[in-house]
Amino acid sequence: MSEQPNVAVDGIDPMQEERWEFRSYVWGAGIALLLTVVPFALVHWGGLPRLPILIVIGVFALVQILVHFRCFLHISFAHKREDLQLILFSALLLTIMVAGTVWIMASLALRMAMPAS
Amino acid sequence: MSREAAKYPGLNLSSAHGKDHEAAESLMFGFWVFLMSDAILFGMVFATYVTSVHATAGGPGPYQLYDIKSIFVETLLLLASSFTFGMASLTLKYKHSTPRLVGWLAATLILGVAFLCFELHDFSTMFAKGGVPSRSGFLSAFFDLVPLHGLHVTGGCVWLICLVGQIARYGLDTKTKLGIMRLALFWHFLDIVWIAIFSVVYLAGLT
């Protein structure tokens, strides 16, 4: 590349920063792998009753989503406030619309004696 | 993460990239707004799936149709492709050689295409077992949700090929760099949607 090479800005050593960010990707992938393998193994080899397995799947999925946000999308509290507010607002909309839909449709199924959801 | 304050989602180019770093701020924010609205679209399709998961109308259900081994392989392929795209982002940020950048992008593309091949194979197996979209409400909802993600991955692969073409034609100018950075957000976002799909659709379906 023809541009000037990376130079230290404000006393930050780019080499060190690169190692740091590389390690963040490796850790992210490693933790994500672990959080993937455990629920797959639980479902494949079974043994546990249904409800605890569902809880483990849900919790592991949420934690893995947070790990991806942190390590791959590099979202942290050092971010601009607008970015974080947008994420929170989207999460709020998702929760209201998805939880509301599931709740209303499950209640409808129950009252109309349709196959339960 | 970086000790410079992050200006936008994704791996931030440092101020060593000068005007490219400045130009990225509004573009990346705009693309992030699109991704959040896309997340809400996916959320509603998930809600549709969850509410119709028992509406099998006597047709085949999750136990007959889902293959956990194939889904596991697909999950590993997507996770690996997220990692290789991360390596591409680092190569871009720290100005390593362009062939190295293209190499990581090509690895990502191969993993993405392999994912799509496994997914298409899954769908054809389901079709062979009578699991077609018109069979039941459950299958309509399934083929609304999972191929929607597959379509996004296909779009990402096409975008990636276009970007490699732009690198070959124009080199790493501001537009190409910002294209790669937005595709990185898109790609990592699709991996997050896949976490929700394998958890809600496949694992919960097979429990």
Topology:
The complex is a heterodimer of chains A (117) and B (207).
Chain A: H1 14-45, H2 50-71, H3 81-111
Helix pairs in contact in A: 1-2
Chain B: H1 19-51, H2 62-65, H3 68-93, H4 98-128, H5 137-170, H6 174-206
Helix pairs in contact in B: 1-5, 1-6, 3-4, 3-6, 4-5, 5-6
Describe the structure.
- The complex is a heterodimer of chains A (117) and B (207).
- Chain A is mostly helical and 117 residues long.
- Chain A folds into 2 domains: 1-76, no CATH class; 79-117, no CATH class.
- Chain A has 3 helices and no strands.
- In chain A, helix 1 (14-45) packs antiparallel against helix 2.
- Chain A starts with 13 loop residues before the first helix and ends in a 6-residue tail after the last helix.
- The relative contact order of chain A is 0.07.
- The mean pLDDT of chain A is 86.
- Chain B is mostly helical and 207 residues long.
- Chain B has one domain: Cytochrome c oxidase, subunit III, four-helix bundle (Four Helix Bundle (Hemerythrin (Met), subunit A), Up-down Bundle).
- Chain B is built from 6 helices and no strands.
- Chain B has helices spanning 19-51, 62-65, 68-93, 98-128, 137-170, 174-206.
- In chain B, helix 3 (68-93) packs antiparallel against helix 4.
- Chain B is elongated, with a radius of gyration of 19 Å.
- Chains A and B meet through helix 1, helix 2 and helix 3 of A and helix 1, helix 3 and helix 6 of B.
Distance between the terminal alpha carbons of chain A, to the nearest Å? Answer: 57 Å
Give the fraction of residues assigned to helices of chain B. over 70%
Derived from helix and strand composition plus strand pairing, the structural class of chain B reads mainly alpha
State the shape of chain B.
elongated
Percent of residues in beta strands of chain B:
under 5%
Oligomerization category of the chains in this entry? heterodimer
Count of separate DSSP helical elements of chain A: 3
